[in-house]
Amino acid sequence: MTARILAIAGSDSGGGAGIQADIKAITCLGGFAMTAVTAVTVQNTQGVSAVHLVPPEIVAGQIRACIDDIGVDAIKIGMLGNEAVITAVADALDGVTVPVVLDPVMIAKGGAPLIEDEAVWALMQRLVPRASVITPNAPELSALTGTDIEDAADMLLAAQELLNAGPKAVLAKGGHLDGDELTDWLVTRQGHQGFSDARIATRHSHGTGCTLSAALACGLGQGLALPEAVTRARAFVRQGLQRAPGFGGGHGPLGFFPLP
After folding, report:
1. pTM of the entire structure?
2. Distance between CA atoms of 115 and 107, rounded to whole angstroms?
3. What is the pLDDT of residues 52-103, one digit of tens each?
4. Where are the alpha helices (DSSP H) in 93-223?
């Protein structure tokens, strides 16, 4: 049976990130993508110029409509925007036991804020503890834990601190750290594991976090163990960077193709 993956995230009019990237990633990896749109953003490769949040009751309604009729095997959560939407999502998922991948989207690639400051507390209280895995980059991990992150040792310590907030696992992404090699760290209560590759030098990296978390949710929904799901999701993102179509004058989108 095809895995049913629900993506709860914002819409990117430029097609490179958000719900659009989620649908493409899930489809390329053999899943069936469903969506609950939390926000409509006006953006392209050069940045976000406006954000319109979807009413919380409509967000919750989308979630329930998908789960009650079609069913769900895994959930990816991305941009949420404010405390009211976070609360609506948490309430709508009450009793749902499938894997949840939480991508704590806070700042767009171009620097625009995508969540209200006061909503971070609600995120930590309502959604972080129920996540099967949370996928912060270094700035997001720093914001969630209140720690400075300058190297891999700092990242591992911060990831362990975030793990203490309740998620089953933390995938701390190392793309913002210096160096020619990029390492993501998977931290669980059983220990930690590094996933390393040579850095790909490109400006066409819009939507890497959205794509990774959607691909990870798809893998978990298809029954892959977490390390295997991480390995496949990272391979999918790397292929996307290598096969980027080169669109736009800013941070361009990835290329979306099935893995060989």
Report:
1. 0.95
2. 7
3. 999 999 999 999 999 999 999 999 999 998 999 999 999 999 999 999 999 9
4. 119-122, 138-145, 152-163, 208-221
User: Which of 176, 178, 185 lies closest to 109, judged by CA?
Assistant: 176
d(CA 148, CA 129): 22
* Domain ranges within the chain, ordered by starting residue: 4-242
The SS3 call for residue 14 is coil
Please report, as a single letter, which amino acid is at residue 74.
Answer: A
CATH architecture of the domain with residue range 4-242: 3-Layer(aba) Sandwich (3.40)
- Of the chain, the end-to-end C-alpha distance in Å amounts to 21
CB-based burial, 123-155: b 16+ in 10 Å, e otherwise: bbebbbebbbbbbbbbebbbbbbeeebeebebb
